[in-house]
Write a structure and sequence with these properties.
The chain is mainly alpha-helical. It contains 10 helices and no strands. 78% of the residues lie in helices and 0% in strands.
């Protein structure tokens, strides 16, 4: 069905607000950024903004949703149908690393997801549910990578494949979140190349997944 002019205009306005919000949250953080800041920077009235986002938390989750969509697309694009399952898991890790390099401040915002969700439990926050749905899409995609690798026998089978995928996601997410906060200063202090260090850590996570990895 062809999108109407009104729908295109609405999507364009929402995109402008979202791009401005990403900039504000990355520069100021969640606590210091305000809807007034967004109105000033985007040149839309607060009344107009509230037609798109119910509150600041809703706007924050819209920003994270945008980031998770990008990350999901990068992971999907890294997949090579001609490669083995373990190699595609490595490619997914590398896609996460590329996302971190391109969006370190956005990744820092993602570390606050659980905290902001706790703030918004009793609020009308439509983008929170959209974010949850997108997160599950991304997680399921990673679980499928692990299931494929297990079926071909390239990863360890002594633990449940879903639990293995979940723990891997948790470890990778924790690493890159921490790396977004202190990785550059840490690698500079130890006189290491940050890209090489990230690649080394990815290799160690892959080693854990291999047959016989402990």
């Amino acid at each position: 069905m062809k999108e109407s002019t009104r729908e295109r205009e609405r999507r364009s306005r929402e995109r402008e607000m979202l791009d401005t919000a990403i900039k504000l949250f990355c520069e100021k953080g969640f606590d210091k950024a305000s809807m007034e800041d967004l109105a000033k920077e985007s040149e839309y009235t607060k009344k107009t903004i509230y037609r798109y986002f119910t509150c600041k938390e809703d706007l924050f989750f819209a920003v994270l949703l945008d980031g998770y969509k990008t990350l999901t697309e990068m992971i999907a694009a890294s997949h090579d149908s001609k490669s083995g399952g373990l190699d595609n898991i490595r490619r997914a890790y590398s896609a996460f690393s590329d996302f971190h390099k391109k969006n370190p401040q956005l990744l820092q915002l993602m570390t606050m997801e659980g905290i902001i969700k706790s703030y918004s439990l009793n609020k009308d926050v439509p983008y929170r549910e959209k974010l949850n749905a997108q997160t599950m899409i991304m997680i399921q995609g990673v679980v499928e990578l692990f299931a494929c690798a297990k079926s071909e026998g390239s990863i360890r089978s002594d633990v449940d494949v879903t639990q293995l995928a979940y723990s891997s996601i948790f470890m990778a997410t924790g690493f890159f979140h921490l790396f977004s906060l202190s990785g550059e200063s840490f690698s500079h202090f130890l006189q290491m190349d940050s890209d090489a260090f990230a690649a080394f850590c990815i290799d160690r996570m892959i080693d854990f997944l291999r047959i016989g990895g402990k």
